[in-house]
Design brief:
By secondary structure, the chain is an alpha+beta fold. It has seven helices and 18 strands. It folds into two domains: 179 residues, no CATH class; 112 residues, Trna Endonuclease, Chain: A, domain 1 (3-Layer(aba) Sandwich), CATH 3.40.1350.60.
């Protein structure tokens, strides 16, 4: 099944209304000045106190596109708000200059971003952003003119988890911009390091069914939640890199525990997780404790095999839009 941009005005209008309605649920409205390089305007913003992001949705403010802007400053404390990320999609037709798009896969509609990040500063752009987030839920998009591009899938437009998924990406873009403007440089090395860069989401694949595309949008959410839960248990030496979802370092800077997060229980997903744990664990000086993180309980046969090869399973489930770990207290960390 391919991902295709929606090009009809009526389809995009309907998708925009659903997207806006989902994002505005539970929000508080304020009149604030929205600033960008070279200008500002006064507009109604919607503040989500749970996810701690504000959003602006306007079908008329930008010519030929839906204006969808997001930021992290609390409008209760700031009169002027800075835009962190825009995800503007065209009103109709094909316009790859827009960073955003509504994509259809079967009967499901997703909101996606090209990775083109504005900012008006050297080093802030699509290529550097994409390179900095290789773990993003990047999917092949097939356009009506037969052009193929990659876009990062944020989430399904009517998903209850969409505000959380979008807030996650907004904060990642903010971190990326801050890193560039402060003179920092993202490392592409896969050696252990004692810092944590939250996951963006997903794996690269060409064609997938809609449920797999959607589940991959949750990848970064689960990784970041696991990191927070481990920190609450007093574990400080947490890190990740381009190849590994999350690992715990020893005082000697070796990987002692390695995690691999999956967002579905399919056989191929579990096989992939096993391979990644074995492969990346093999490069360590001493074999680390390997933990496969799954959204539920695998079959009894699978659990037996995992135990035989020394892989422990950490289970989680979704409750009210939040991932909840079921046996973390029993995991040896």
């Amino acid at each position: 099944m391919s991902l295709n941009p929606m090009t009809l005005r009526r389809d995009n209008a309907r998708a925009f209304r659903i997207f806006r309605a989902r994002m505005n649920e539970g929000c508080h409205r304020f009149q604030r000045e929205i600033g960008w390089q070279g200008g500002y305007l006064t507009h109604t913003v919607n503040w989500n106190p749970r996810e701690k992001i504000w959003s602006v949705f306007d079908p008329e403010a930008a010519q030929g596109r839906y204006w969808c802007a997001f930021g992290t400053q609390d409008p209760r404390e700031h009169q002027m708000l800075d835009i962190v990320m825009e995800c503007n999609s065209p009103l109709k037709g094909v316009n790859r200059r827009c960073a955003g798009a509504f994509l259809k896969a079967g009967q499901q509609v997703f909101v996606a971003h090209s990775g083109k990040i504005g900012g008006g500063r050297k080093g802030i752009g699509k290529s550097s952003f994409v390179e900095s987030y290789p773990h993003g839920n990047w999917q092949i998009v097939e356009w009506p003119d037969e052009v193929l591009t990659e876009m990062v899938i944020i989430g399904r437009i009517n998903s209850k988890r969409l505000p959380k998924q979008l807030a996650h990406i907004v904060r990642e873009v903010e971190k990326f911009k801050s890193s560039v403007t402060s003179g920092g440089k993202r490392s592409n090395q896969t050696i252990p390091r004692s810092t944590f860069s939250p996951e963006f989401a997903g794996q690269r694949r060409s064609y997938r069914v809609a449920r797999d595309i959607e589940s991959s949008c949750d990848h970064g959410l689960v990784v970041n939640l696991l990191k927070r839960c481990l920190k609450r248990r007093g574990i400080k030496m947490l890190a990740n890199d381009r190849a590994r979802d999350l690992y715990i370092l020893s005082k000697g800077q070796r990987i002692r525990i390695l995690f691999e997060v999956k967002t579905d229980l399919s056989t191929s997903s579990i096989y992939q997780g096993i391979g990644q744990l074995i492969y990346h664990g093999a490069s360590a000086e001493k074999s680390p404790h390997r933990i496969l993180v799954l959204p539920g309980e695998p079959t009894a046969e699978t659990q037996k095999v995992l135990a035989q090869i020394g892989i422990e399973v950490l289970r989680y489930k979704w409750e009210d839009g939040n991932a909840v770990f079921q046996n973390l207290e029993n995991i040896r960390v």
